[in-house]
Structures are given as structure tokens and as C-alpha cells.
Specification:
It holds the Pfam family Aldo_ket_red. It comes from Paenibacillus silagei. The chain has a single domain (about 5-205, about 265-305), classed as NADP-dependent oxidoreductase domain (TIM Barrel). It is about 35% helix and about 15% strand. The protein has helices spanning about 20-25, 30-45, 60-70, 95-110, 125-130, 130-140, 155-160, 185-190, 225, 245-255, 265-275, 290-295, 305-320; strands spanning about 5, 10-15, 20, 50, 75-80, 115-120, 145-150, 170-175, 195-200, 280.
């Protein structure tokens, strides 16, 4: 395993870490025993960081992490998120009282005394502009309930605003071959200010595995069906904002990146890790096989400067015109 510093937090995290949205729910049917075996396999191979949220399976993902990491609280770092269990536009949802309640609930499910990284879960811009939420998080940090805090953001503008607050230790962003915009300004600014970068949806909800066809379908309880066009939450969270069929077409045009780099998923995550401002990628998984496949990314060779330029040009000319939602 290879490790990188999570900004200025003092935490060293595995380059390939894992998110737990898929084992918690909203990615189709999953089995707890498969998820637990996947978590165990990841830890056995040196993964020491997992990302979750209080709304993943209504807290079920946090409970699975507690079960998998019992006795390992000092060596396995956990990031969780809050706010989307309530009305994300209501300022009261971000009051010190409410945030404390969210935190206590997550601590109970995680069976921990402190949360390593506590993140605001994609809040609206007006909440970030108000800024009082950061004071509430400073208070939780002073109380020892959280060690560091950060923000999971949807857009570049939100990320840059968050970096103006000195307490923000990390940003969680959508960054992949179909969403390259953060590399231009956000990643350099984060590096300059000592903030870590967690990359979610590195495979664009599976598009960048190269396994889908235009006729692929998803289960009713999979966000790739019920949020394909932003029906339930931000459209950028599903297929990086691309219409599904167009995304499949674009992924096929990237088949060349697999040459000498395993498969498309591994090559796609290698591209992300080739950006030094990135602390780690946090792909999802449902079973041990997917964990092992994602960890093989660590053995994939980096892209050449020429390859990077080719991929940047592809993004601007062929991907950007089809992205929906703010970037």
C-alpha cells in the first residue's frame, strides 16, 4: 500500500481508500456479508481510511464500519458526513445543537469516541456563504468529538469558498476523466492552503469501468436509475452529470487508456492519482472482488505528459458540451 498525507491533518491515508455508499444502499441490492468481507480484504491489504455518511442506508454503512473496525479504532481512520438527514436549505439544520445531535448519532453507530474527519454533506451555497456552520464545527473539535472537519462539495465555486475558512482540513470532490475541471484551480488552491482532497465517484458511477452498454439497466433502488437525470439530488452525483447513453459512448472512446494499465477502472483511477494534490480516491464497492480490482490501481503505470494532454483535450472537446448541472 502507498500512503499520502491528508493535507495538514497529520493523518496518512491509503492512496486507494474506499467509500461505503454502495454497501449502505442506493446502488441496488447488496449483502452485508459481502460488504464486510470487502472491508476486511481492504484492511488486510493496508487500506486505513474509509468514507461514509449518516444517510448511507439510513446509518447502516456506519454500523457496518463499526463492526468491521472494532479494536482497530486507532489504526483505521473514518470520515463521515452530515446534514442531508434534514432539510439542507434550513439554517436550523446547521445550528450547533443540530450538528451536535448528528455527530452523537454517528459516533454511536460508529462505536467511536471521536470522528477523524467530519464533513458537511454537499450543503447549498447559501449555507457556506453564511459560514456559521464552521463555528459549530470548531466547537465540536474543541470538545474532542471530531478531530478535523471538511466539506463535500458539488462545484468549484463551493470548494474555493470553503478554502477561505482556515478550519476546513479537506474537501471531497467529484474528479475523474469525465469531470476534470477541478485540476485547473481547485486542486492547486487546496494544495497551497494545506487542505486534503478526497476524490469521490472516480469512475463516474461506473461509466469509467467500460462495462456498460447503451442497453444496460439498473435496479429501482439504484440511484443510477432513480437519479439518472437529477430527479432526487444533484445530477452531477450520477454519471458525473452525463446522460447515460452519451457517457457509455464517451467511455468507449477512452478504451486506449487500458493499454498496459490493466482495465479502464484502474487506468481511470491512476489518472486521478497522477495529480499530486489528491490525497486519495474513494471508489465504492459491494464485494471483495471489487476491492481487489480497485487496489490493483496501485500497480498501474502513470500517464505520460502527452497522454495527459490528449485526455485534457478529449474532455474539453467531447465531454464538456454534455455535462449537466454546475461543475
Amino acid at each position: 500500500m502507498k500512503y499520502r498525507e491528508l493535507g495538514n491533518t497529520g493523518l496518512s491515508v491509503s492512496e486507494v481508500s474506499f467509500g461505503t455508499w454502495a454497501i449502505g444502499g442506493d446502488w441496488g441490492n447488496s449483502k452485508d456479508e459481502d460488504g464486510l468481507r470487502g472491508l476486511q480484504a481492504a484492511m488486510e491489504q493496508g487500506v486505513n481510511f474509509f468514507d461514509t455518511a449518516d444517510v448511507y442506508g439510513g446509518g447502516h454503512a456506519e454500523e457496518l464500519l463499526a463492526k468491521a473496525t472494532r479494536g482497530k479504532q486507532d489504526e483505521i481512520h473514518i470520515a463521515t458526513k452530515f446534514c442531508r438527514a434534514g432539510d439542507i436549505h434550513d439554517p436550523e439544520n446547521y445550528s450547533a445543537r443540530r450538528i451536535s445531535e448528528y455527530c452523537e448519532q454517528s459516533l454511536r453507530r460508529l462505536e467511536r469516541e471521536a470522528i477523524d474527519l467530519y464533513q458537511i454533506h454537499c450543503p447549498p451555497m447559501e449555507i457556506l456563504r453564511d459560514g456559521s456552520v464552521f463555528a459549530a464545527l470548531d466547537q465540536l473539535k474543541a470538545e474532542g468529538k471530531i478531530r478535523h472537519y471538511g466539506v463535500s462539495v458539488e462545484t468549484i465555486e463551493e470548494g474555493l469558498l470553503c478554502l477561505e475558512h482556515p478550519g476546513v482540513a479537506a474537501l471531497q470532490v467529484i474528479f475523474n476523466l469525465f469531470r476534470q475541471q477541478p485540476a485547473q484551480e481547485l486542486l492547486p488552491q487546496a494544495a497551497a492552503k494545506g487542505a486534503g482532497i478526497l476524490v469521490r465517484l472516480p469512475l463516474a458511477s461506473g461509466l469509467l469501468t467500460g462495462k456498460f452498454t447503451p442497453s444496460s439497466t439498473f435496479q429501482d433502488n439504484d440511484h443510477r436509475k432513480f437519479n439518472a437525470n437529477g430527479e432526487q439530488f444533484n445530477v452531477g452525483e450520477t454519471f458525473s452529470g452525463l446522460p447515460f447513453v452519451k457517457g457509455v459512448e464517451l467511455a468507449q472512446k477512452l478504451d486506449w487508456i487500458t493499454e498496459g494499465r490493466g482495465n479502464m477502472a484502474q487506468a481511470s483511477m491512476r489518472w486521478i492519482l497522477d495529480h499530486p494534490a489528491v490525497s486519495c480516491v474513494i471508489p465504492g464497492f459491494k464485494n471483495e472482488s471489487q476491492v481487489n480490482d480497485n487496489l490493483a490501481t496501485l500497480d498501474v503505470p502513470s500517464f505520460s505528459p502527452g497522454d495527459m494532454e490528449r485526455l485534457a483535450a478529449f474532455y474539453q472537446s467531447e465531454v464538456v458540451p454534455h455535462i449537466r448541472g454546475e461543475v
